[in-house]
Amino acid sequence: MSTRTRTSTPTRTGSTDQPGARDSRRTGRAALSARRLRALARAEFTLLGRNRTVIVTALLVPLALPFSVRPALDRMDLGASGLSVGAVMLTAAIGFSFLFAVYTALVSAFVARREELVLKRLRTGELGDGEILAGTALPAMSLGLVQALVLSVGCAVLLDAGAPEAAYLTVLGVVWGLVLCAALAALTAAFTRTAESAQVTALPLIFVSMVGSGIAIPPEVMPDRLASVCALLPLSPAIRLVQGGWTGRLTGYEALGALAIALAWTAVAVFAVRRWFRWEPRR
To answer: Model's pTM, two decimal places?
Structure first.
């Protein structure tokens, strides 16, 4: 991983700055950082809109795939597990949005920007590393958030999924899923050589999450031992919070367990990105 040299500003001893002055400087730095993030996000929105392949994958796949699992759901005894077809399809739709609108799209975006030397040029300016990654990820995360809202309303109305019993858990699951998918996308990009191979390197997490994280197959219909193992997968906590918040069948202890697993995966992903993310093209 490449490094860059940052110049340090000498500090003066015996400073007589008042607390109000320090707070004002911190506020100014935060406002400046927010402006830089907005500018980078706007540029990324423009680039995202020009990539028709990514737009089709991000918008249509999460809407179409949940209906592909409908025949399998009709053969499952969901009522015995306290689930409804509407709630399961809602969870599947949001899960597919995580995978395709955010994760897959961002793997391609990170690799393409790196290979085009965009990330390298951005690092020579005032943006910090975290700001560069966050600004690049904001458009896809915003798309995923809007898609989750639309899917929630649509499933509640058209599939009789009802209203969420614990909306705060569903919101927490959606937000955490978006953040974790962005971090996992950056990590996957670190081991992806070209933008063309991004679709291939993203497949393992997609398949594992679809099958084991409760997106295509509800964990309630799995054998207990298998469900316990699958609960440790990266996206399983977010999916569990989304579904548990909608159905109201998630206890406080189970919610805390899901949060702990999600926090652990987020910490691992962030550490790995800081350690292995590449800012220059892989040769």
So the answer is: 0.82
